[in-house]
Amino acid sequence: MVYLTRRERFSAAHRMYIPEWSDEQNLEVFGKCSNPSWHGHDYVLFVTVKGPLPEKTGLVININSLKEIIREKIIDKVDHKNLNLEVDFMKGINATTENLAVAIWNELEKPLREAGCELHCIRIDETENNTIEYYGKKD
Amino acid sequence: MVYLTRRERFSAAHRMYIPEWSDEQNLEVFGKCSNPSWHGHDYVLFVTVKGPLPEKTGLVININSLKEIIREKIIDKVDHKNLNLEVDFMKGINATTENLAVAIWNELEKPLREAGCELHCIRIDETENNTIEYYGKKD
Amino acid sequence: MVYLTRRERFSAAHRMYIPEWSDEQNLEVFGKCSNPSWHGHDYVLFVTVKGPLPEKTGLVININSLKEIIREKIIDKVDHKNLNLEVDFMKGINATTENLAVAIWNELEKPLREAGCELHCIRIDETENNTIEYYGKKD
Amino acid sequence: MVYLTRRERFSAAHRMYIPEWSDEQNLEVFGKCSNPSWHGHDYVLFVTVKGPLPEKTGLVININSLKEIIREKIIDKVDHKNLNLEVDFMKGINATTENLAVAIWNELEKPLREAGCELHCIRIDETENNTIEYYGKKD
Amino acid sequence: MVYLTRRERFSAAHRMYIPEWSDEQNLEVFGKCSNPSWHGHDYVLFVTVKGPLPEKTGLVININSLKEIIREKIIDKVDHKNLNLEVDFMKGINATTENLAVAIWNELEKPLREAGCELHCIRIDETENNTIEYYGKKD
Amino acid sequence: MVYLTRRERFSAAHRMYIPEWSDEQNLEVFGKCSNPSWHGHDYVLFVTVKGPLPEKTGLVININSLKEIIREKIIDKVDHKNLNLEVDFMKGINATTENLAVAIWNELEKPLREAGCELHCIRIDETENNTIEYYGKKD
Q1: Which of B112, B114, D58, E15 has its CA 20 to 30 A from that of C110?
Q2: Region B2-24: what's the mean pLDDT?
């Protein structure tokens, strides 16, 4: 079993808030991250897949296939976008990086399986100091 | 003459656009950066000051004074904010990183001079691939 | 189960040595790291916690609580300090990064549990080339 | 159990290809990475070992012994070399980073065991965006 | 005058040597960098342009134009290539990073001028420890 | 004229203080950096030299000569040392990074000139947030 991690980046706006709560409640729980006028990040996404190593090629997965899947399913939908307003797979979900990691897992798991490898981890760096990792429900 | 650079970070939302232009015109010139629903960045700000070295202390400037000035004049105003809507010194200015660098220079030049050193350069990394530097009008 | 990692930094002096040993013995085992006049590092600390994701907030832990705990229990005690002489939780322990990681785990495990999440990993980068990780006794 | 990771770097040329295949077939599967005139990388190698912490020294392994083993067994053989033509432990193997990670594992596992610790992970960053990890057959 | 720097990367093979010299002479002057079987790097290229800031747009240059010029004139020619054998603008030139920086300057100066801005600096990081900068003949 | 920068690292202990001042005065001016029990850093040193490009070799300076000079004159004297107590060229000087940069310039200028190139800049990163640059008296 060998693990391959692809790093991609996207820049997006977001805010954390719960619609049923007042601005005061949101501010109390989410602090400045709940700013109604939005803020944003240069998110760094790490997608780790795993698989056995075919003796012939010695590749876990063709890196171009992996890049293509990540671009089509994720980057094109989130880059230079508003995570709360414009991303189909984040609709109705509070735009925390935790929730974003789980949502990206759910978008990528099946296409990657169909491409012949297994999704192992979704990691997102929100800033250089804050990182989220998700290994799926099996964890 | 010795140069001291302080690095600070802030996360903000923005868009590039010219209000008198149509969405189509803005899209043509600014591309996805003109998205009306905003996007954002983890901006990295480098403030470089210069000055002679006092023989006694060997400090260009007290680093805590420098940090304090940058925090009060800039970071508190831009961090977790919308650069187009919420920042007083960016009002009426297209929120490109070039304009942001010039505006930050204008905010910091006087307070730094009053603190005893000379502003030399404002550098902003918008992403790991795009950097703007401004050295003032004298350049 | 989602994992959240917070990165913090501290600058400290230390040396590696065993008091009962002669300077020669210490030099033989610990090399230049046993210099009796000390040396130091810009340590980078990564604290990883894990927990289920509350459906409402989508946060493993409030990041400000996590930062506060790390600051109070660790950073305030080690930053700009001498790890051998001034840190209560390192008293009588050889100041290797391995021992430091275990000691920091012991300081943080209970407060983090009380804050509602589980400590998963303490990672310390001593330099850009040397990293220590500790996952607790259960590992 | 404590984990120690040593980071080393080497610059090497390589190409990916299967000798029995035509240039066209290789190009189709490996893309520009199959260029017969070679290309190269600044590979970053992370060797992670694990072991219990001796109460006296508080060291998983003497870092100089670890560095020495990695240098003698790996770096001296791959740095400023052609991975396909000049590296004994890569002979007859397609020079993918996956295969390289497995081969380095096989070279290091025994010497590290003899030095008193257990190899846990070989990680190689081929570029800042592509990373391979291998944890041995037991995984 | 505002400065904009675009960062791009390319992976290439090369060797340093002077054809008229013997392998021994080349080895003496260029060391392991003269390996006849090649080695390679993940080069990082920084292209800095400068220009006045148009009041309307606040852009030194449209970043997509800049990216396009760098890609067409440089990256497509050097990425996953052998710098000695396959790059037209390096023909007959010893493939040192110094010479590469000057050659890239010569390729980019005119197209950038035609695109409305002035080339200020070509910087290349060969490894994380070795960097070359060239500011043109005027320097 | 081409510029070559070599990056080196050293780990050292230091404190900032003026011997004639009381601990209280030192604390007031230098803050926690004046801790009498020392603290330390992983300093990153960038030495930039410049020179014309010899047509034959295309090298500003042989990189091994440059590394050798920096190692002998600086790194061997400061790495894993106490900057205040053990470094000959820092005797009697307050160990600020500003003073350290000027002192390193003074140590390197002549040997580099004798090696055939001109020292252009000494840059030291004390932490990832604080950087000092010195370009000599001519600046």
Answers
A1: D58
A2: 97
